[in-house]
Specification:
Helix content of chain B: over 70%
Number of domains of chain B: 1
Distance between the termini of chain B: 50 Å
Mean pLDDT of chain A: 79
Oligomer: heterodimer
Number of helices of chain B: 9
Strand content of chain B: under 5%
Radius of gyration of chain A: 33 Å
Mean pLDDT of chain B: 88
Shape of chain A: flat
Shape of chain B: globular
CATH class of the largest domain in chain A: Alpha Beta
Distance between the termini of chain A: 85 Å
Number of strands of chain A: 4
Strand order of the largest sheet of chain A: 2-1-3-4
Strand content of chain A: 5-15%
CATH topology of the largest domain in chain A: abc type-2 transporter like fold
Number of strands of chain B: 0
Largest interface: A-B, 24 and 33 residues
Radius of gyration of chain B: 18 Å
Largest sheet of chain B: none
Largest sheet of chain A: 4 strands, mixed
Chain lengths: ~220, ~200
């Protein structure tokens, strides 16, 4: 056994005397993981993702106004910026300069066509120099299109009336406003179950109280 | 350093490079044979089995020394939490046994140093890939995951992650048992094959 130990000690001592090869190989996993940690780690902070979108608003209607107002909402402000442009060329220039990840074109009469139930095509120009963010915008546009379509299917006439009402140059009439709200409430009541599903509530009671509530006779006896 | 990324990446990377380090150590048998020092050692009152045992044990201990250095360095430099020290010693011991055993078997089966080097590099790279040292294991297709589970790297990763996360032993007991049993079998086989090879004239 001593022979084995002495041979092991001799070999290990040889490793100690010439350590550089082993030390360099030992450092590699640390360096690799450290680099990966720097590249992909967030150091505990929220990832700083900011999406810039160019918007060409040829519609200038209700839905494009909604989009421009969403840019100024507090939650979106940190992660999403809309850059309104006046022409396709101006938007493409921003794409080429990599100032934006994509350009969304809201076509003429988009709001009217949507309200009339016509098909609307929303052109989307994606920045080919970026991989992820243009896909995020594409997915977001898809979700928005589905959402708008569902809302219009559900309450298209009411939305049309509301837009007409507030587009008037004069003060909306009280009766018209009241009827609009009334019809809107009726629609909401029809889908109340989906908007406000019944919640499961949990409560803590004493075991004695629970048993008493199960057996009225026992409860009566106890009382 | 981010503990989550470290926990996710480091065990696999460490095991892969331990393989390479242990390989340079196990390769010493071939080096000694080529330099004729093995023949000179055999002429001394030392049996061939003692020489083989010393080479395997040296490789095993070198792995432990490297692991100890890595654990101490990452704890001090990056504040990484390695979990229960006793379980860490047990798990790394099981990994080292497997690594040393596999390398001993491959070295015994290959006739030349170059062939052993080539096969070992191929083995390390493929098992690291399948075991999840390069890519996220969960993102791999199911059939690759099924194959990848049966690699030493995968068992080692699961055990080390379990220790680092402070999981109960029962959670990674199967992988630990696989590491120990495979390590014992491979080390025994490697010892037998190397000794037999040298006894049959492979010493020169």
């Amino acid at each position: 056994m001593n022979v084995i130990f002495s041979m092991i000690a001799k070999d290990l001592w040889r490793d100690v005397k010439r350590p550089w090869g082993t030390l360099i190989m030992t450092c590699i996993p640390i360096v690799l993981v450290w680099l990966i940690s720097i590249a992909f780690g967030s150091q505990g902070d929220e990832p700083d993702i900011h999406i810039d979108v160019a918007v060409l608003d040829q519609d200038e209607g209700f839905f494009s106004d909604m989009m421009s107002s969403s840019d100024s909402s507090n939650e979106a402000r940190g992660h999403l910026s809309f850059h309104f442009v006046d022409s396709v060329d101006e938007g493409i220039l921003l794409l080429e300069k990599r100032k934006v990840s994509a350009m969304v074109v809201m076509p003429e009469n988009m709001t009217d066509d949507l309200l009339d139930g016509k098909d609307v095509i929303i052109p989307l120009y994606k920045n080919p120099a970026q991989q992820l963010l243009p896909k995020v915008i594409e997915q977001g546009t898809d979700i928005l299109a589905v959402g708008v379509s569902e809302v219009l299917t559900f309450a298209g006439p009411e939305i049309r009336q509301a837009i007409d009402l507030f587009d008037q140059d004069q003060m909306p009439s009280s009766w018209g406003t009241a009827m609009l709200v009334y019809r809107g409430m009726q629609k909401m009541e029809a889908v109340e179950t989906y908007f406000f599903p019944p919640l499961v509530q949990m409560d803590t009671v004493k075991a004695a109280d629970f048993i008493a509530s199960l057996t009225p006779a026992a409860a009566g006896g106890a009382g | 350093m981010n503990q989550d990324i470290f926990l996710y990446m480091f065990p696999g990377t460490m095991l892969m490079w331990l393989f390479f380090i242990a390989q340079t150590s196990m390769d010493d048998i071939n080096q000694e044979r080529m330099r004729k020092t093995l023949m000179r050692m055999a002429s001394a009152p030392i049996t061939l089995s003692q020489i083989v045992i010393s080479k395997i044990a040296r490789s095993f201990l070198l792995c432990y020394i490297i692991e100890a250095m890595l654990v101490v360095f990452t704890t001090v430099a990056f504040g990484i939490h390695w979990g229960n020290l006793v379980m860490l010693i047990v798990v790394t011991g099981a990994c080292n046994l497997c690594i040393t055993g596999v390398l001993a078997v491959i070295h015994a089966l290959m006739k030349s140093k170059n062939a052993a080097d080539a096969i070992i590099i191929l083995f390390i790279m493929i098992s690291s890939f399948l075991g999840g040292a390069f890519f996220p294991y969960q993102e791999m297709p199911p059939f690759l995951r099924d194959i990848g589970y049966w690699t030493i790297i995968r068992w080692g990763i699961l055990c080390l992650q379990g220790v680092m996360e402070g999981d109960p032993v029962t959670k990674y007991a199967q992988e630990l048992a696989l590491l120990f049993s495979a390590g014992a079998v491979m080390t025994g086989l490697g010892f037998y094959l190397n000794t037999r090879r040298f006894e049959r004239g492979g010493i020169v």
